[in-house]
Amino acid sequence: MAAASRVIATVASTTSLLSRGSLRRSQTLSLCFNSSRLVAKKRLFTCTALYKPDVQIKEEGLPETLDYRVFFVDNSGKKISPWHDIPLQLGDGVFNCIVEIPKESSAKMEVATDEPFTPLKQDTKKGKLRYYPYNINWNYGLLPQTWEDPSLANSEVDGALGDNDPVDVVEIGESRGKVGQILRVKPLAALAMIDEGELDWKIVAISLDDPKASLVNDIDDVEKHFPDYALKVITETNESWARLVKRSIPAGELSLV
Predict the structure, then answer these.
(1) So what EC number does this one have (predicted)?
(2) For 51-71, b where at least 16 C-beta lie within 10 A, e where not — what string?
(3) What is the per-residue pLDDT across 13-45, written as a single tens digit (0 to 9) for each?
(4) Which positions are annotated as active-site residues?
């Protein structure tokens, strides 16, 4: 069945997002609604982060080259992992989001989950750097301390398995972020994308620094019921990350430092 016909439900606020095409690489697309008022009753995994988000960015190599890396360092100059060492939650429903691809840019930056200290790098395909065919209209990033477990089948999304990556964030505010910038965001919606059988969550969020942030507090402002399911997704993937770093699950080629 074609991806367009696999959409479980369609809403105005997300239709414009999807129609722009940056999320079209998946073969199957689902929008998951909280029709049963699913509320994340479990606490997020409490992990004392090794470092606070007050970190510095250290670039190695030239942008838009195969060797380009964006590392995160603490105040002493020691490299840290943006995936493992930046805390996920800030309390009161606010989370850290690390910008990978700034708004109005096209280079497909991503976290290098299989490299020490998991720096940011530009994605490649067949040895060539990857780009969007246009500049995207939002900041694209990741939620630290989350992981989509490839051995865990999600019964609510066609039994799809996790894609072995942190959870992606689509930040819809009006300001353009920078590669490696840490934004404080609140989640508004959860989009489930299935790419060759792998579940790839997209959390739609807005930066607290955005002038319209106070006006967008629940899915009635973007679309009803998304925030609860978004929090559920964050909770589950945070727990998966916790099992990963505790080595309860084999890490394979993933770097845990």
Answers:
(1) 3.6.1.1
(2) bebebebeeeeeeeeeebbbb
(3) 332 233 233 333 333 333 333 322 233 333 343
(4) 132
